[in-house]
């Protein structure tokens, strides 16, 4: 072997005795085969085998297996964001002429995906009330998938996953649920009869505001094969470095979630005493639609909730949020840093019937709870003062 070749062909070294506690970061596009016949037979390696980097490396396999175990699923596949995990499910399952049902409280980009990309492919969608009261009337032979999200984005309605899954099953319709808010530590949709459990690992699993990733977990092998086929056909994969960060995040997710969830509940309770607060939308409180379902089916709360305000002006709302010293203004919750964003839910068509409602969405992080409480006192004290001033004769 000459030097130029030596530069390319790395020497084999022993791995004997190398027993790290955590999986290595395996990067690969090319996978090599021992023989020409092996290469020709590579499809026989199955959906979890290694034949090309697009199908992932052992780093991804560890994360997939860990998410599957947490969700109580037989299979899991990873996608480069939560949103792409949702679009993968829909593209894999739906065909021209099909219809998907989505709740009015769905993560808003899903509504856009249905209205633009799916509509362009000849796939229809209908929007149902989060409490599913109008769902039976929307069923039809063309409905292939019912999507759920519980609690819903921003307005936090809890859905009865068990009841909706049973209704869907009776009609031969697949169900999927966005389990990002709860994570499988608090809620396991597959155990309630849902076919597909999806998470934005970007949030609590990643946990540090530095990766984007999504997961899709299922029990049915044929469904898994369809998801993997769609993923490969679209040419999508996740980086092993990001998988490694998600694995690191998962190791501490339980304690982070328990701590932040407890602090969030305390702070949510504190916010109820402000005059400028109309409702605190948190599944622990009866103000939150479906809170009784949450008490029955879930085993705790994560640390993101919404406060509905007494409709301050945009200028007052913005100025109030800017009083915060520790809450950063930004989306994508579940990290170590507390976040706060102003929201209006003007595009919600039939739920809840509150036109012009104004909200603050909060994600509680890992800072000292006393500093967070002081920050909220500044923000909501400002809103209260503005409300009192507006009411003065
Ligand atoms: C953030 C979020 C997503 C999308 O995740 P990304 O990784 O940001 O694409 C999906 N569903 C819910 C409920 C989310 O909060």
UniProtKB/TrEMBL annotation:
Catalytic activity: L,L-cystathionine + H2O = L-homocysteine + pyruvate + NH4(+)
Residues with PTM N6-(pyridoxal phosphate)lysine: 203
MF GO annotations: cysteine-S-conjugate beta-lyase activity; pyridoxal phosphate binding
Required co-factors: pyridoxal 5'-phosphate
InterPro entries to which the protein is assigned, alphabetical: Cys/Met-Metab_PyrdxlP-dep_enz, Cys_b_lyase_bac, PyrdxlP-dep_Trfase, PyrdxlP-dep_Trfase_major, PyrdxlP-dep_Trfase_small
GO terms for biological process, alphabetical: L-cysteine catabolic process to pyruvate; transsulfuration
Keyword Lyase: yes
Highest taxon listed in the record's lineage: Bacteria
Keywords: Lyase, Pyridoxal phosphate
Annotated PANTHER family: CYSTATHIONINE BETA-LYASE-RELATED (PTHR43500:SF1)
Family: Belongs to the trans-sulfuration enzymes family.
Protein name per Swiss-Prot or TrEMBL: Cystathionine beta-lyase
Native source organism of the sequence: Chelatococcus asaccharovorans
């Amino acid at each position: 072997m000459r030097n130029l070749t030596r530069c390319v062909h790395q020497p084999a070294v022993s791995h004997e005795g190398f027993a790290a506690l955590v999986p290595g970061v395996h990067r690969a596009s090319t996978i090599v085969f021992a023989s020409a016949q092996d290469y020709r037979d590579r499809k026989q390696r199955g959906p979890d085998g290694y034949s090309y980097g697009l199908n992932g490396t052992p780093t991804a396999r560890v994360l997939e297996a860990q998410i599957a175990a947490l969700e109580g699923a037989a299979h899991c596949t990873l996608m480069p964001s939560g949103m792409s995990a949702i679009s993968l499910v829909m593209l894999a399952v739906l065909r021209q002429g099909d219809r998907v049902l989505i709740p009015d409280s769905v993560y808003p980009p899903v509504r856009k995906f249905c209205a633009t990309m799916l509509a362009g492919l000849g796939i229809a969608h209908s929007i149902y009330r989060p409490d599913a009261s109008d769902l039976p009337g929307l069923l039809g032979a063309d409905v292939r998938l019912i999507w759920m999200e519980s609690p819903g984005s921003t307005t936090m309605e809890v859905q009865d996953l068990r009841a909706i899954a049973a209704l869907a099953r009776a009609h031969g319709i697949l169900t999927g649920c966005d389990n990002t808010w709860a994570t499988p530590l608090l809620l396991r949709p597959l155990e309630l009869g849902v076919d597909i459990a999806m998470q934005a690992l970007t949030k609590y699993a990643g946990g540090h505001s530095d990766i984007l990733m999504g997961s899709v977990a299922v029990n049915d092998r044929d469904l898994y094969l369809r998801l993997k086929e769609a993923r490969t056909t679209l040419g999508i994969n996740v980086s092993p470095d990001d998988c490694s960060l998600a694995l690191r995040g998962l190791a501490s997710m339980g304690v982070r979630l328990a701590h932040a969830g407890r602090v969030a509940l305390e702070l949510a309770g504190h916010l109820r005493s402000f005059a400028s607060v109309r409702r605190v939308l948190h599944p622990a409180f009866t103000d939150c639609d479906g809170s009784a379902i949450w008490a029955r089916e879930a085993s705790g709360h994560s640390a993101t909730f919404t406060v509905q305000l007494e409709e301050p002006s945009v200028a007052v709302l913005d100025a109030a949020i800017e009083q915060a010293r520790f809450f950063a203004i930004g989306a994508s919750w579940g990290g170590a840093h507390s976040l706060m964003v102003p929201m209006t839910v003007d595009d919600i068509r039939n739920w809840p019937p509150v036109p012009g409602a104004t909200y603050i969405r909060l994600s509680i992080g890992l800072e000292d709870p006393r500093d967070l409480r002081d920050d909220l006192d500044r923000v909501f004290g400002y809103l209260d003062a503005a409300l009192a001033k507006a009411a003065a004769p």
